[in-house]
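Q: Hi! First time doing this. I have a protein sequence and I read that you can turn it into a structure. Is that right? Here it is:
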Amino acid sequence: MKKAEIVIHRDFQIGRIDRRIYGSFVEHLGRAVYQGIYQPGHPEADEEGFRKDTLELVRELKVPIIRYPGGNFVSGYNWEDGIGPREQRPRRLELAWRTIETNHVGVNEFASWAKKADSEVMMAVNLGTKGVDSARYLVEYCNHEKGSYWSDLRRSHGYEEPHNIKVWCLGNEMDGPWQIGHKTADEYGRLACETAKAMKWVDPGIELVVCGSSGSGMPTFGDWEATVLEHTYEHVDYISLHTYYGNRDGDTPDYLASSLNMDNFIRSVASICDYVKAKKRSRKTLYLSFDEWNVWYHSNDDDRRIQPWSIAPHQLEDIYNFEDALLVGSMLITLLKNADRVRIACMAQLVNVIAPIMTSGKGGAWRQTIFYPYRDVSTYGNGVVLSPVIKSPCYDTKSYNEVPYLDSIAVLNEEENELIFFAVNRDLEEEMLMEADLRAFTGLSLVSHTVLENDDLKAVNSEENPYNVLPHDNGKAAVEEGRLKALLPKASWNVIRLKIGNKE
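A: Yes, that's right. Below is the predicted 3D structure, encoded as C-alpha cells:
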C-alpha cells in the first residue's frame, strides 16, 4: 500500500475562495437551452416553460454564476433578436454550430431563469460581428433603471426592474480562426478597450473579462495575452482561460494527470498578467476567469453526423464515465490551489451539452458522473484554501513526469468551524493511506468521509440507470492524536470533513 503525507497550518493560506469559481456556462448550443432548461409542454415545465427537474438539479449544485449566451454562438448573435414578443422574433441561421436559432429564449428569459436557479448571470457581448454600440446598449437594456430608450424598452417588455448583471465577457475566443469575426490580438485589443470604456461609462459597477487564448496549445498563446493586455489592462478586471481534456487513446494514467497541464496554464497566464502590470507600472492586479473547463471528447464522432440547420440537435452530448469524474475532481482541486488568482470559473457546460446534468426530451433529468465532485466542492469548498506540503509517491506518463498519486487540497471553513479535504487517488491498482499532520488545530473530530469509487472506470449513469455511479459515506478515516489517517480506495474521489474544536 502506498502512503502519502500532508502537513497544513491554519496560518499558511493560498487565498480566500471566491464562490464564483463554482460557476457554469449555458450556450445556445444543442439542447442546452431548448429541452435543457426550457421546454414548454413538458410535464416538468413551469408557467414560463422552464423545466423544474433541471432547476432542482442546478440548485443542488449551488451554481453561483452562469456564463451566457456563448461561447462561439455569441460572435454572431444579435441580442435584439431575443427580446419582445416571441411571435415577432426572427429565426436565424446560427453559423457557429450550423443550426437554426429560434430566439424563443433571450436575455430576459435567461435572467428570469437564473433567479429561479439562485444564480447570477455572466453576460457575453458580441465582438465578432458587433462592437461598441451593441455592447453598451445591452448594458443599458439590462442594468439602467429607467428613463432611457433601452431601459424603457426593457420595461415595455414586462421587466420593470433592471437585471443588474455585474460580470460581462468581452466576446469569446477571438484568437480562434473558427470564430465569426476572428481578429488579430491588436485588432481585438483595441476593440475590447473601447468597448470596455463605453460599457463602464453606462454602468461603472460592472466587472469585465477580456478574452485570453482559447487554449494553451494555440500558436499565439502568450503573445496574444500580452498584446491584448497592453491595450486593455487598466479597463478590465479579468482575463479568460479555456481548456478541455479527453482520453482519446485510452491511456488513463496520462489522462488523470491532465490537471498538471491546467495548473501550468494558470500559472503561465498569471505571470503574463504580472509582466504587463510591471511594464505599465500599474498598482492593479489582474485576476483570472477560467470560464470554460471540462472533459470533452466523447461526442466528437456523433457530432459529425448532425444534419445542418436543425433546431436543438443532440450536439456535444458527452456521456461521462467514472474516470472523467476523477479528472473533474482534480481540475476542481487545481482551481482551489490557485484561488489567489482565479476568481471566476465556469464548468462548460451545465445541461445536456458537455454537462453534469442530462435531460430526456420526453422523460426526466439525471446526474452524470461529473456531477458529484462538482456538487461536493461547491457545497463544502467555502472559506480559505490552505497551502499544503504534500509528500506523495509519483509516476511518469508519456506527457508528464513526477505525477503525484495523491492530488489533494484543504479548505478551512471558519463559519462552519470545519476543515475539509478534497482528494483524488490516481492509483488505479491500490488504495492509499493518506496521513495529515493537523497539530495546528485542536479538538478535531470526523464528520464524514464520502467516497466516489467504481470498479469500472468506464461506468456511466443513464436515464435507465441514473445511480450506477454514486458516492457513499462509508469512507475509512479517523483522527488520532492530531493526525488524520484516511484510506483512499484505488481510483477514487474523496471528501473528508472534520469539525474543529475551540482554539487553545
